[in-house]
Amino acid sequence: MKHHFLQIENLKKSYPGPDKDSELVIFENANFTIDKGEFVCVIGHSGCGKSTILNILAGLDEASDGIVIMDGKEISGPSLERGVVFQNYSLLPWRTALQNVTFGVQARWPEWSKEKVQEHSLRFLELVGLKGAEDRKPSQLSGGMRQRVSIARAFATQPQLLLMDEPFGALDALTRGVIQEELIKIWEESKQTVFMITHDVDEAILLADRILLMTNGPKARIAESVKVSIPRPRKRTEIIHHQDYYKIRNHLVDFLVDRSKQDISVLNPKDASPKIIDLAS
Ligand SMILES: Nc1ncnc2c1ncn2[C@@H]1O[C@H](COP(=O)(O)OP(=O)(O)OP(=O)(O)O)[C@@H](O)[C@H]1O
């Protein structure tokens, strides 16, 4: 059997329901794997449980059932091996851009000298185009710049798994495009494993190797795993001309409009592996 870097088995999250002994199942039987170095996006309607899955992978929330295995070990609690980028940046407001990055780097490698920590952190700020802004506090940075700091901070600690919850959701389209390309550059250099939530199908096609599609809750399931068969390096302006682009895009949009409403927990109560979709010409 193939060994996957990340293995999610029969994950379930439920909350107590309105009546005694009832439960509200957000999602159940979520099964998927991610290989080392893979970039995987997850798409699904609001409320289906994407952030909950990400928080469970981060160790910030607990599953009601099922397990998450990373590199052969079950995940329990947060760890520096898993970095998170949230939509609202979550920077420390009293620290400069550089100090926000060095904070994590120092914690990751306590044996490093101050110079080495600074040099390493600066390199990641430079990779996201923030050279020259390292001494500014978050309040002196634009939204796009703050999000770049949080991406630099996450990549700089070189976690084995990088979790991103709609990292570009609050940005305007132009800034978003620039940072997406910076993210691809930094990911191609670091080859880290990424799990990212997005609502934007074009963003998912640009960034991901594979896109997981979640049905609507309650009792949401991961229904499909769609391969993005467009070669890298990818550029936003070029991939739209690739012969597979609209096939993939239409498949994703059809899922969101139609198939996401299907209750596959009824159709398919036991075998919950996502259907593998490869639309390559
Ligand atoms: N404490 C709670 N009690 C009951 N239900 C909860 C609780 N916390 C979260 N939920 C429900 O869990 C569901 C999943 O929430 P989650 O934030 O994971 O969804 P999401 O797919 O990430 O949504 P969005 O795309 O809007 O961010 C939601 O329907 C939410 O109402």
UniProtKB/TrEMBL annotation:
Keywords: ATP-binding, Cell membrane, Membrane, Nucleotide-binding, Transport. CDD domains: ABC_NrtD_SsuB_transporters. SMART domains: AAA. It is a peripheral membrane protein. Residues 6-241 form the ABC transporter domain. Its main location: membrane. It holds the Pfam family ABC_tran. It is found in: Cell membrane. One of its GO terms (molecular function) is ATP hydrolysis activity. This is ABC transporter ATP-binding protein. Belongs to the ABC transporter superfamily. The lineage of its organism: Bacteria, Pseudomonadati, Pseudomonadota, Gammaproteobacteria, Thiotrichales. InterPro entries: AAA+_ATPase, ABC_transporter-like_ATP-bd, ABC_transporter-like_CS, ABC_transporter_ATP-bind, NO3_transporter_ATP-bd-like, P-loop_NTPase. GO terms for cellular component: plasma membrane.
